[in-house]
Write a sequence for this structure.
């Protein structure tokens, strides 16, 4: 290298043998280049930083009954794990619309999909919440699609990135917004919410049995970051078993995240629009990850079936196999339901 040539930027150093911080795990963030490292992380039952292991892929594909040439929608694109498998099944001649509201992760996924050979003719990434499926199809003059898939909740990329504030396990800002550019952050929402409204959110969004006690001690308080909220919760729950405390903290974070992102309202709207967005005989498959989501999907599907709108439903809820639950612990709460629009 000549003296006139700039030296390549030195990679940031970290203490210890392996990086511990999310942003320092450069090999896991570049899976195509460091496949061996990523394989080791997956083999250990963990999810590589910056990625997401798709859940119940085979079961979801079976529920959708995909065929070459189909046009469909992945209403929650995320890391693109399910989308990649769907595109393989509907080729040649198929087309997939991938919706995602996250302005940070959606461009990354679209770029990866393009790098993997999925052109605009077969795949389009759309910045939209799944409640906007009707507008997305209308803007493209598509009267109905052959299938719709949705994988609800947060992705591993969101949970594992401490800058997003979704997880109580890592220090970060108390944000939790799927789209950080819109609405109140979790910290701002907590500071403004009444104890009554917070108690309702805790009970309805996460079945929290100590909703009133927690709400009385959290509502109206400013928390600088996620560790501050966790510390306050541990103070409120002092004397309880440590495992029960962690479970309660997880439920509180879930309830606040759902409220901040208005997730149940978006899900209800999505379920309402489903029949008008499917072709006759079209299929929908939805993965849920907690009881509040599953109840809504189950009741909506049953109501549409009784009304004759759906001609067929999954006879029982699908769950991840024992092997998948061992390999990917995040698959344990997953539940799969599907339905078919009447001809």
């Amino acid at each position: 290298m000549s003296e006139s040539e700039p030296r390549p930027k030195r990679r940031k150093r970290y203490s210890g043998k392996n990086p511990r911080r999310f942003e320092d795990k450069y090999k896991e963030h570049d899976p195509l280049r460091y496949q061996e490292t990523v394989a080791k992380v997956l083999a250990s039952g963990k999810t590589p930083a910056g990625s997401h292991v798709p859940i119940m892929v085979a079961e979801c594909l079976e529920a959708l009954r995909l065929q070459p040439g189909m046009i469909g929608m992945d209403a929650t694109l995320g890391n693109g794990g399910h989308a990649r498998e769907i595109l393989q099944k509907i080729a040649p001649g198929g087309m997939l619309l991938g919706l995602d509201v996250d302005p940070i992760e959606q461009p990354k996924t679209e770029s990866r999909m393009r790098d993997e050979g999925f052109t605009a003719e077969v795949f389009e990434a759309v910045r939209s919440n799944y409640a906007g499926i009707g507008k997305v199809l209308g803007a493209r003059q598509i009267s109905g699609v052959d299938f719709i898939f949705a994988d609800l909740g947060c992705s591993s990329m969101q949970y594992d990135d401490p800058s997003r504030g979704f997880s109580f396990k890592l220090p970060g800002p108390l944000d939790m917004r799927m789209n950080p550019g819109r609405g109140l952050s979790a910290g701002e929402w907590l500071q403004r919410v009444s104890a009554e409204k917070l108690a309702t959110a805790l009970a309805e969004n996460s079945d929290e049995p100590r909703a009133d006690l927690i709400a009385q001690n959290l509502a109206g308080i400013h928390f600088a970051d996620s560790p501050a909220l966790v510390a306050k919760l541990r103070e409120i729950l002092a004397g309880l078993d440590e495992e029960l405390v962690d479970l309660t903290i997880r439920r509180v974070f879930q309830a606040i995240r759902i409220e901040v992102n208005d997730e149940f309202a978006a899900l209800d709207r999505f379920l309402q629009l489903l029949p008008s967005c499917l072709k006759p005989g079209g299929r929908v498959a939805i993965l849920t990850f907690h009881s509040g989501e599953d109840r809504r999907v189950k009741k909506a599907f049953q109501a549409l079936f009784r009304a004759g709108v759906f001609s067929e439903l999954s006879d029982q809820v699908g769950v991840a196999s024992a092997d998948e639950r061992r390999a990917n612990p995040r698959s344990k709460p997953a539940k799969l339901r599907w339905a078919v629009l009447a001809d």
Summary: Residues 299 and 305 are 10 Å apart (CA to CA). The chain has a mean pLDDT of 88. The radius of gyration is 21 Å. The first strand starts at residue 71 and ends at 74.
